[in-house]
Automatic annotation (TrEMBL), chain A:
<dbReference type="Pfam" id="PF13620">
    <property type="entry name" value="CarboxypepD_reg"/>
</dbReference>
<protein>
    <recommendedName>
        <fullName>Rhamnogalacturonan lyase domain-containing protein</fullName>
    </recommendedName>
</protein>
<keyword id="KW-0732">Signal</keyword>
<dbReference type="InterPro" id="IPR013784">
    <property type="entry name" value="Carb-bd-like_fold"/>
</dbReference>
<feature type="signal peptide">
    <location>
        <begin position="1"/>
        <end position="21"/>
    </location>
</feature>
TrEMBL record, chain B:
<keyword id="KW-0813">Transport</keyword>
<dbReference type="Pfam" id="PF13442">
    <property type="entry name" value="Cytochrome_CBB3"/>
</dbReference>
<dbReference type="InterPro" id="IPR009056">
    <property type="entry name" value="Cyt_c-like_dom"/>
</dbReference>
<keyword id="KW-0479">Metal-binding</keyword>
<keyword id="KW-0249">Electron transport</keyword>
<feature type="transmembrane region" description="Helical">
    <location>
        <begin position="455"/>
        <end position="473"/>
    </location>
</feature>
<keyword id="KW-0408">Iron</keyword>
<feature type="signal peptide">
    <location>
        <begin position="1"/>
        <end position="17"/>
    </location>
</feature>
<dbReference type="Pfam" id="PF09459">
    <property type="entry name" value="EB_dh"/>
</dbReference>
Length: 243, 483
């Protein structure tokens, strides 16, 4: 009889855990002798960055603007690629870094940024004209789920908002249709954006197997399996090719 | 044994509470929802339903977790009261009716069920913004609001006079979260404002925005007093609709020279609520023209009829979309008794006369006789002329007709009720200038007969007579008293 009690208790306690598996909060643990993921993202060849024509507020925005979508070095290294270990649900503490989204010369800067759930967005307007800043989780097929839509009518206006909703978001200004950038709101500290040389490094991961998301605005998304070993750097290189 | 049963019961709670089949946790809400809401909003809350192609705006897809109508700051989900309000009061101008048949408990259960379609969204904290006490309306505050309207760039999208015709703010490809097109609100049409048209409603919309649309939140951008000033100005733009059955057409010596002549503003008017034409192919299930304002004047020689309606973006037909257009119809035969021709383009027994103006041929009247939508014949010579303007989102079209003697033209007889109806077309909305458009019911216009001379002679004579008789009576009474 006792055994029945015990097993019933165990089942009872486990059930919510099983059901909550996908919404499990991130758990901070001491990471000693963790591993890292390191690599370079490249393009199979050069891709011309589009130039956007501007027909509004030209005095501030100029007549045309480079999209800054394909920032590719002479060695075909790709900047602004998001690399995120989405399934890391345990590890080091989430950094207390805030994420700046600046409306500057009718462009959102940076083009690709990482924000951390629990941190803050610092949304700025550096232009002397009206911008609004609308963040939305990308749902595909041109659909999204609005996270914030804030008006910044004045120069140097700053609005701070908490980062609450995780996921990859598009940032848009409804007043200037060409303006866009991307913010990845991460539940864990394990996300990075590639630099000019296409390099990234994600440190202090607990050893284990992870699925890593590699995403670029123009090239699209791939998910890679990576095994991280204690004290070692796992290599993760990828070469995108334009379809 | 009792303990074991107790444990099993305890066990069953987490199973129901946390299982993926959320509906099981709220059978009452699911029952009401599936019975009354799912036909439009979808059984899974995803708006996958039969009505999605024939309603504008489309039914809300709850799985997105985006809510336009909230009392909470941008980024926060709506409160239960916000959702309850829409269920109870409906959403004017949409297919969402007010639901009064349910008990409060049933509504509460439905709200819970609706929330279960976007559990992530509703896991967040929700707190309405503080509305406080609105400042009183005054000339000064409305002036301040008008200034803010420019500074806060409301004007970019909503246009100088608030008709939603901002020339640089909005693009034809403005999309909502759900991926369908959206245009800025027309503040002059209070009845079209889904989030309400009272001062507080406007203030709330300015403050928290409409999530999922380009309407942005000013809560963190403008101080409270400026948002109230804006709300006062925007509220002051609303038209007062004058509804009725008949339009009085007064007689004047000379007619206003242009459709946008300020002289028209003093002329009596009638507002015609418009609805989609649903009887004949091609039908219009999703009209955008909701009101046409009609005015009329006549002289000894001519009758003029002014039609005005809002169009947020004019189309003259050159951009691949049909041209904007308006049509007025009258019965061909003199109207007697209570029977009217069929409301849309008549029948062979009771044909109608139609004058149509198109933005593609600005100075031409397409004059036709119609015996039904498929029996329309153009006339050799138009019996009317036309003038049109488009200004700040408003079309003004004046039809002018020569008045012959009543004998020759029994339809336009002075002093009689003359039936007319309007069809208006918005090219941007794919309305074709034929059958796909917004229609009105039959209304009447009456050219008021000039006041006959007797009116000026008889009453003074009678008044004088009464006065004299009164004095006489008074005197005779005084005499009697003394005596």
């Amino acid at each position: 009889m006792k055994k029945v009690f015990v097993s019933a208790l165990v089942v009872m306690l486990l059930l919510p855990v099983i059901a909550f598996a996908d919404t499990k909060p991130y758990e901070v643990v001491d990471v000693k002798d963790g591993g890292s993921i390191k690599g370079k993202i490249k393009s199979s060849g050069p891709v011309t960055d589009p130039v956007l024509e501007i027909k509004k507020d030209e005095s501030v925005c100029g007549k045309s603007i480079s999209k800054h979508e394909y920032l590719i070095s002479s060695a075909n290294e790709v900047k602004n690629v998001l690399v995120a270990v989405e399934d890391a649900d345990k590890g080091k503490a989430i950094p207390k870094t805030d994420t700046v989204i600046d409306n500057l010369k009718c462009e959102f800067l940076p083009i690709v940024a990482v924000a951390y759930v629990g941190g803050k967005y610092i949304i700025k307007n550096s232009d002397p004209i009206f911008h609004n800043t609308s963040l939305g989780i990308i749902l595909g097929e041109g659909k999204k789920r609005t996270v914030y839509n804030l008006a910044l009518p004045n120069k140097d206006q700053v609005i701070e908002k908490p980062v609450k909703v995780p996921g990859l978001q598009i940032v848009q200004c409804d007043a200037h249709a060409w303006m866009r950038s991307y913010v990845y709101a991460s539940k864990n500290p394990y996300a990075a954006v590639t630099n000019d040389k296409g390099d990234f490094e994600i440190k202090d991961l607990l050893p284990g197997k992870y699925k890593v998301k590699i995403w670029h605005e123009g090239f699209g998304e791939v998910i890679k399996d990576v095994e991280v070993k204690a004290g070692q750097a796992a290599a993760l290189d990828h070469t995108f090719s334009k379809k | 044994m009792r303990i074991l049963i107790a444990l099993l019961i305890a066990m069953s709670f987490p199973v129901y509470g946390f299982s993926a089949e959320k509906a099981a946790a709220n059978p009452e809400g699911k029952k009401v929802y599936d019975g009354w809401c799912a036909q439009c909003h979808g059984y899974k809350g995803d708006a996958d339903s039969f009505t999605k192609d024939v309603s504008l705006p489309q039914p809300r897809d709850f799985t997105f977790g985006t809510y336009k109508f909230r009392s909470t700051p941008s980024g926060d989900p709506p409160t239960d009261e916000d959702i309850t309000k829409i269920i109870r009061k409906g959403n004017p101008g949409t297919s969402m009716p007010p639901w009064t048949r349910f008990t409060d408990a049933e509504v509460k259960a439905v709200v819970e069920h609706v929330k279960s379609f976007a559990p992530d969204t509703f896991a967040m904290e929700r707190k309405p913004i503080n509305i406080g006490n609105p400042p009183k309306a005054s000339k000064e505050i409305i002036e301040q609001g008008k200034e803010q309207f420019k500074i806060a760039k409301c004007v970019d999208c909503h246009g100088k006079t608030g008709r939603g015709d901002g020339d640089k703010g909005w693009q034809d490809d403005f999309k909502t979260d759900w991926g369908y097109g959206i245009a800025p609100a027309d503040y002059t049409h209070g009845w079209e404002l889904r989030n309400g048209s009272t001062l507080e409603d406007i203030y709330r919309t300015i403050s928290v925005g409409l999530s999922g649309t380009p309407m942005t939140s000013y809560l963190d951008s403008l101080p409270d007093d400026k948002r109230w000033a804006l709300a006062h100005f925007i509220t002051s733009l609303q038209l007062t609709r004058k509804l009725g059955l008949a339009l009085k057409v007064g007689r004047v010596e000379s007619l206003p020279s242009k459709p946008n002549d300020p002289a028209w503003e003093k002329v009596d008017y009638l507002d015609l609520p418009m609805g989609g034409q649903l009887m004949f192919d091609k039908r219009e299930f999703t009209p955008v023209i909701t009101n046409v304002r009609v005015r009329g004047l006549y002289t000894s020689k001519e009758l003029v009829i002014l039609l005005q309606w809002t169009d947020k973006k004019p189309n003259d037909g050159s951009d691949g979309k049909p041209a904007d257009s308006v049509r007025i119809q009258f019965p061909v035969k003199k109207h007697e008794g209570s029977e009217l021709p069929y409301f849309f383009m008549g029948t062979s027994k009771a044909p109608v006369n139609m004058w149509q103006w198109k933005a593609s041929d600005k100075e031409k009247v397409f004059d036709m006789t119609a015996k039904g939508p498929d029996k329309v014949e153009p006339k050799d010579k138009a019996e009317a002329t036309v003038m049109a303007t488009y200004e700040d989102g408003l079309y003004s079209v004046v039809f002018k007709k020569e008045l012959k003697s009543a004998k020759d033209d029994p339809v336009f007889e002075i002093g009689k009720f003359i039936p007319f109806s309007i069809t208006a077309f918005d090219g941007r909305n794919g309305e074709d200038g034929l059958t796909k458009g917004a229609v009105s019911a039959w209304y009447y216009l009456m050219m008021e007969p000039p006041t006959p001379m007797q009116v000026y002679v008889f009453p003074p004579v009678v008044a004088l007579g009464v006065l004299i008789a009164g004095i006489g009576l008074h005197k005779s009474l005084r005499k009697n008293k003394k005596g």
